[in-house]
Amino acid sequence: MSDKMIRQNVIDELDFDPSIDAAHIGVAVENGIVTLTGHVASYTERVAADKAAQKVRGVRGVVEEIKVRFGGETPPRDEDIAQRAVQMLDWSVTVPKDAVQVKVQNGWVTLSGKVDWQYQKEEAYRAIRRLAGVAGIMNTIEVAPRASVPDVRAKIVAALKRNAELEADAITVTVKDAKVVLEGKVNAWYERELAENAAWSAPGVRAVEDHLTLG
To answer: Where is the BON domain (predicted)?
Structure first.
C-alpha cells in the first residue's frame, strides 16, 4: 500500500471517529510511518487520534506530535489538576490507596509509585486521562514482580492462543528478569498491540520489548 493511500485512509479514519475533531490535525506518511501534527482540545482526543491512526492497514508506526490547546479558556492550575488527580485515584477501587504519587508541571501529569499488577498501573492512567486541563501523562509506575518466569511465560502464551485474531504459533515469547520479549510476525499493526496487551496481562511483568514485524 502506497504512502499516499495510507495517508488518505488515516485522514478518513480520523474524520470517521466522532470523538475527534480532525480539522486541526495534520497527517504525513513516509515509508508507512505516520506523523500526526496540529492541535486538539483535550488529552483524550489526542490519544484517540493516535489509536485511530494505528488501526489503519499498512501503518507501520505512528509519531504523535499533536499539542493540546484549551481554546479561549484559562487552563486549570497545576495544583488544581494534581488535587483532582489524587481524588480520582482515591476513588478508584482498583488502584491501591497511597500506592501512586502524582506530579504536575505545565499540565503534564507524571504518575509514580509501585503496584502489584499491570492492570492497576493502567487503571491509574485511565482514572485521570479525562481530567480537564491535562496536556499529557507520563506513567512511570512500577509493577512489582510476583510470579516465576515459567508461570509468566505460560500465562502469556495461553492468552495469545485464546485470541482468535492472533496466530500464536508465529510469536515467540521470552521472559527474563520480569521482562518479556516478543518476536515473530503479525499480519497487521494493531495485532502487535494485542500481543503486547497479552504480555502485560501476566502478573509480575515489568517491561515488554516488542520485536514483532509485519508479515
So the answer is: 2-70, 77-145, 148-215
110 CB-contact burial (10 Å; exposed 0-12 / middle 13-18 / buried 19+) = middle
Largest CA distance in the chain: 55
Q: How many Å apart are CA 62 and CA 79, to the nearest integer?
A: 32
Q: Is the distance from CB of 82 to CB of 103 less than 8 angstroms?
A: yes
Q: Which three cell numbers stand for residue 32?
A: 508507512
Summarize the chain as % helix, strand, coil (round to 5): 40, 30, 35
Please answer whether residues 14 and 22 qualify as being in contact, where contact means their C-beta atoms are separated by less than 8 angstroms. yes
pLDDT digits (tens, 9 = 90+) for 21-61: 999 999 999 999 999 999 998 889 999 999 999 999 999 99
pLDDT in tens, 82-140: 999 999 999 999 999 889 999 999 889 999 999 988 889 999 999 998 888 888 899 99
The three cell numbers of residue 176 are: 527474563
